[in-house]
Amino acid sequence: MIELTTPISEQAAASLNVGDTVEISGYILCGRDAVLPKVLKMIEDGTAGELGVELQGQVVFHTAVSPAGVGPTSSNKLEIESSIAPLSKAGIKLHLGKGQLKKETVEALDKYNSVYAVIPPVTALLGAKTSEVKVLAFPELGMEALHLIKVDKYPAIIGAAHGRSIYD
Amino acid sequence: MTKTYEEIAALVRDTLVDAGSTFRTDKKDAYRRAIACERNEQAKWVLEQILANAEAAENAHSPLCDDSGIPHLVLEIGEDCAVTGKMLDAIKQGVADGLRKLPGRPMGIIGNDSQRIDQSGGLDPDSAGVKPAPILIRRCSENTIRLHILMFGGGPAIRGKTYRVFHKHSTQVVLDEIVSWAKESVAQLGCSPCTLAVGVGRSHFEAASMMLQAQVDGNYNEQSEMEQEITRRVNEANIGPLGLKGDTSVIATFMKVGPQRASGIRVVCLRPCCCFEPRIASVELV
């Protein structure tokens, strides 16, 4: 089991390989279909600093955040998968979700020294590992707003790294 | 003895919480068998995580999944029993109370027809803003009124399919088509292993109704030959839990075949129920 704590360094990201089992701790971002395109727009506009969180070394968990808890949605949804390359370019080191990604997305992860990890949809277990929840931006989106949460040892398997995919 | 509005609402409320937070005993048994047989270590780890999550959710009476689901109701009515409008109101109230107690994910969309389609009207912040699907009513042999509550997540709805199959007067042709659909949908779902719910009917409505009833009547410990064949053939595809490969892509198949007609087609409804589904609990209301 590999322990990862945010912010994840370039060296730590580079050391990860497909099939590695990891536990993720620290503050991580949560967003999915509705909000990730808005975050990309902020990056394009040069206003991402207004989020108040340094994107370099961060984790993006593809999930809604609601009273029901958190759990991965499919990362291969159009708006989510298309965010992976530009967010990696902006410094995100780990994208946390579920489902198979396209070859070009896997290659983009490699280009920017970022990885994709698959997390089981174990909402009840994750609830006990989540201690802080904060809306960072776009509160009008409710559970689909950009959230920052503090997590302790979220379990995951590296699903794509160094141009390889666990689904190949 | 007739129950009051409040008593029915309370029973429905607690049953919905059970449906959203509990694995039935036969499902736990099926997972334990799958863990024992799984040869892929990553797949085994995922199965163990899902079972541990089920135990944690049951103990805390909390959601199995953050997509807590859309309530789907099946109401069974015995010979001498009558359902009143007031009873339906009490069931509706119980569903709302249950969604708040679970708590369900507040994902109901508000607004007019167009706004509810494009999601421009915003989200209802109340968990009870998630309205149940229309109730399915059927007879039962016991002299009671029994309500089954099933919580339907979004992933299986994305990957499910209802379509006609030209059967060519061969059951095998229909089974082959079901297996073909299932392999594709299970691979795309993400939250496998699945339980495949299959309905076969004369119309899209009837096939979907059969699919719903298959989940009510299905049992992990009692599988027909057709159900076993579908499960075995999909598992041979080596999709595995969460698509990570392995022996366990499908835990079981629940199939219900309705009346058919003289025709070249059968309408098949397939729902690749995710690793937590069927999320179901039942209660007697008399």
Gist of the model:
The complex is a heterodimer of chains A (168) and B (286). Chain A has five helices and eight strands; from the N terminus they run E-H-E-H-E-H-E-H-E-H-E-E-E.
Features:
heterodimer, A: 168 residues, alpha/beta, fumarase, five-stranded mixed barrel, 5 helices, 24% helix, globular, B: 286 residues, four-stranded mixed β-sheet, 9 helices, 20% strand
Structure description:
The complex is a heterodimer of chains A (168) and B (286). Chain A has 168 residues and is of the alpha/beta class. Chain A has one domain: Fe-S hydro-lyase, tartrate dehydratase beta-type, catalytic domain (fumarase), CATH 3.20.130. In chain A, strands 2-3-4-5-7 form a 5-stranded mixed beta barrel. Chain B has one domain. The mean pLDDT of chain B is 96. Chain B has 286 residues and is of the alpha/beta class. In chain B, α1 crosses α4 and α2 runs antiparallel to α3. Helix content of chain B is 43%, strand content 20%. The longest helix of chain B is centred in the first third of the chain and has 20 residues. A 4-stranded mixed sheet of chain B has the order 2-1-3-8, sandwiched between helices. Chain B has 9 helices and 8 strands. The chains are: A alpha/beta (168), B alpha/beta (286). The interface between A and B is large, with 37 and 43 residues.
